[in-house]
Amino acid sequence: MAAVDIAGLGKRFGETIALSPSDLQIADGEFVVLVGPSGCGKSTLLRMIAGLESASEGRILIGGRDVTDVPPAERGVAMVFQSYALYPHLTVAGNIAFPLKVAGLLKREIAERVAEAAAMLDLTDLLDRRPRALSGGQRQRVSIARAIVRRPQVLLLDEPLSNLDTSLRARMRHEFARLHQQLGATMIYVTHDQLEAMTLANRIVVMSAGRIEQVGAPIDVYRRPASIAVAAAIGSPGMNLLPAMLAAVTPTGTTLRLSDGALVTTAAQASVDDVGTAVTLGVRPEHLVPDEDGPFAGAVELFERLGPLSFAHLGARGDVDTIVAQLPGDRSVTLGEVLHFSIAPHDAHVFAADGRAYPLTPPPSSPVR
Ligand code: ATP
User: Fold this and answer.
1) What sign does the dihedral 3-20-17-35 (CA atoms) show?
2) Ligand 1 centroid vs 41 CA: distance in angstroms?
């Protein structure tokens, strides 16, 4: 197992900057998930670590060794692809054994390692089957077994579950968590899926437009996104982002004026020079509290009942987009009903015109939020 150290790593495809020079340190044994919108550079970063894409600038160190110019097979990494990429004419055992045969291992050692990887991925009873006789989930397990059989120092996974249906994804998610514990391997995982990112990662790396926007524990990034790009990328349904004006700076934060004139008290720390500037107010659906006198109001256009909770979509007004509010599962609502909400000042996220989040004033009572 090994740490991965990325220093000033960048990638250009002609005019396109797929990755601006970026730094990232991944600890030995860590499970890191790269997330972000389509085209933000996640796969490019992963493929550069694998050696499938050359670096335009910067260095990649694996286990302290500079591998920037080392061929993929000599980097001590293995990659699992979304498409499985199994050999159709080989059995499951043949597929798993393939990289070991190429490496010239002895037959007995190959048999032992294949049996071990198959057991780890619950494939022991399927070793004689060919890929076409397997389900999607089983095929993906074979491709994972084939990756780990080489005992790579680093396991790279590019959207490995995106071809699977929801229930299988959930099962495979648990398997990845278990596999990570069993192998203790450094794992770098690319996904679009919020749940995968939040549940699997020790740390998530949020990317946007070829840049690393924020790196942190999933819950920290969820609670305190450093920028609008991160706020928009993390959370489902997403954070409500409302245009506002910074109306006043107070001893405990700021007051914002929404475009319909309503005032919102926040704990954001701004300078008096910022008064009068355009900002964006970010509010998570679960932080909207029913309150007849609250500044957020709207008629329910759509109501989604999920069982344990519900989401009310309040109609757009002027340049304020639809607001989504989370309600208890047993709350009954009629379409067209006007609902009012407020938020606690520390639950407000305020983003400056350049997208960066304002820091918060320390909460008055509880230090942990
Ligand atoms: P997705 O989630 O859709 O897979 P991504 O975040 O993995 O997206 P990348 O595949 O890394 O994004 O692509 C980053 C940028 O680099 C995109 O603008 C893409 O069009 C461009 N790009 C990627 N590969 C190439 C290539 N071989 N030639 C030219 N441009 C490329």
Assistant:
1) positive
2) 6
44 lines ligand 1 (CB under 6 A): yes
Q: Which of 128, 129, 226, 116 is nearest to 182 (CA)?
A: 116
Q: Does 368 have pLDDT greater than 60? A: no
Q: Which of 152, 195, 154 is nearest to 172 (CA)?
A: 195
Sorted by sequence, the CB contacts under 8 Å of residue 348 that are 6+ apart come out as 256, 264, 265, 266, 267, 268, 281, 282, 283
20 C-alpha to center of ligand 1: Å?
13
Prior bond of 237 cis (ω within 30°): yes
What pTM value is reported for the model? 0.89
**Distance from C-alpha of 281 to C-alpha of 179, rounded to nearest angstrom:** 40
Q: Which of 16, 159, 191 to mutate for ligand 1's pocket (most ligand atoms within 8 Å of CB)?
A: 16
Angle (CA) 269 274 278, round 5°: 105
Identical fold at 4-232 and 237-351? no
Class of domain 237-351: mainly beta
Interval 20-52: pLDDT, tens: 999 999 999 999 999 999 999 999 999 999 999
One-letter amino acid for residue 269 of the chain:
Q
CATH fold label, 4-232: Rossmann fold (3.40.50)
Nearest protein CA to atom 25 of ligand 1, as residue: 13
Strand order across the 289-290 sheet: 289-290, 338-342, 296-305, 309-314, 323-328
Phi, psi of 61 (to 5 degrees): -115, 130
**38 C-beta closer than 6 A to ligand 1:** yes
The residue contributing the CA closest to ligand 1 atom 22 is 18
Mutate to test the pocket of ligand 1, among 9, 33, 42, 189 (most ligand atoms within 8 A of CB): 42
| 111-156 pLDDT per residue, tens | 999 999 998 888 999 999 999 999 888 898 899 999 989 889 999 9
Is residue 112 within 8 A of residue 181, CB to CB? The reply is no
Q: Where are the domains of the chain?
A: 4-232, 237-351
Residue type, 3: A
